[in-house]
Design a protein that fits this description.
With 321 residues, the chain is an alpha/beta fold. It has helices at residues 13-25, 38-51, 67-80, 101-108, 113-119, 137-152, 154-157, 192-211, 237-247, 287-308, 314-320; strands spanning 4-8, 30-35, 56-61, 86-89, 98-99, 124-125, 164-169, 216-222, 264-270, 276-282. It has an eight-stranded mixed beta sheet, with helices on both faces.
Length: 321
């Protein structure tokens, strides 16, 4: 039976590379590119069909940073497909990163250099903003929009006798120290990207607890250090030239998880001999926090659904979260 795979943020970078590999592994997939920019999605589809001429590649307009876009796209998905086998939650944003130049040079010649570039800890600060729904933009795009999408697509993901999988593109930048359950949108911090990625790691654990008995499993992956449109613009090009000899050990090579360990993040790595492999690493998450986050997201979902029928919910969302 033809498997249905949906990939958010599929028009470039990690998402497009993932789609290429999926089609290489199974040319009979029904692959759906869920993207915010329709023109770029069409270009990505054309590129995939050039190398996989008989592939089935659909397009879906989806901006996970917009509540209404998520609802509209989900309705279209339910009209197109009878089930979903894989849902890759890859779309994300990293806003306006500012480099602490002093910290960069200090870390460059320290024993902590690999960790600094792997996590950006102490290197970057970011300024987030509110979106048109009254939500913090990074939180809405990297976490909440995907949560809403999962909730909307549960009828296709959770079916009797059928197993489906959600795969989150996380990051080594996902750090517990950047996240506060009392400020899950990260309104008061300067590391919204790290906070959102840690929240997605935590949410994955809760999804497994609540949905495994319905046939839905959630996994978390880290693609390693890779040049995408999120990372390349952070530093001038000559800096990347300088540090590439350090970064090559973390080459992108996204692989499927061999097993579903709800507490593991599967890191794509490359050995010194150039062998690609996946290494599971235990995530710094706990059951209690994951349950509280899941509950808070359900509460926010109820607010969003109630306000969506009344129009723009921005002001009430600002006051309620």
């Amino acid at each position: 039976m033809q498997r249905v795979v949906i990939v958010t943020g599929a028009n470039s970078g990690i998402g497009l590379a993932l789609c290429e590999r999926l089609l290489t592994e199974d040319s009979q997939l029904r692959l759906c590119l869920a993207c915010r920019n329709v023109q770029r999605a069409e270009a990505a589809r054309s590129a995939l069909l050039t190398s996989h001429t008989n592939a089935h590649v659909d397009l879906l307009h989806l901006d996970v940073g917009s509540v209404q876009s998520v609802f509209t796209a989900a309705q279209e998905v339910k009209a197109r497909y009878s089930r979903i086998d894989f849902l890759y939650l890859n779309a994300g944003i990293m806003p306006n990163p500012q480099v602490d130049v002093k910290a960069f040079f200090k870390g460059l010649f320290s024993r902590n250099v690999v960790n600094m570039f792997a996590t950006a800890e102490g290197l970057l600060t970011q300024q987030d903003r509110l979106n048109s729904d009254g939500l913090q933009e990074v939180f809405a795009t990297n976490l909440f929009g995907h949560f809403l999408l999962i909730r909307e697509l549960e009828p296709l993901l959770c079916q009797a006798g059928h197993t489906s999988r959600i795969v989150w593109t996380s990051s080594s930048n996902a750090r517990r120290s950047a996240f506060s359950i009392e400020d899950m949108q990260h309104r008061n911090g300067t590391e919204p990207y790290s906070s959102s990625k840690y929240a997605s790691d935590t949410l994955s654990l809760a999804l497994n607890r609540h949905k495994n008995n319905q046939g839905l499993f959630s996994s978390v992956i880290c693609p390693g250090l890779v040049m995408t449109n999120l990372t390349y613009g952070i530093l001038p090009s000559f800096f990347w030239t300088l540090i590439m000899p350090i970064m090559w050990l973390h080459w992108l090579f996204l692989q499927k998880s061999e097993s579903l360990d709800p507490r593991a993040k599967y890191h794509s790595l490359t050995s010194g001999l150039g062998t690609n492999y996946t290494q599971p690493r235990k995530m710094d998450i706990d059951d209690e926090m994951s349950e509280v986050l899941y509950s808070k997201l359900l509460d926010l979902e109820r607010v969003v659904r109630g306000e969506a029928s009344e129009g723009n919910a921005a002001n009430k969302l600002i006051n309620s979260t």
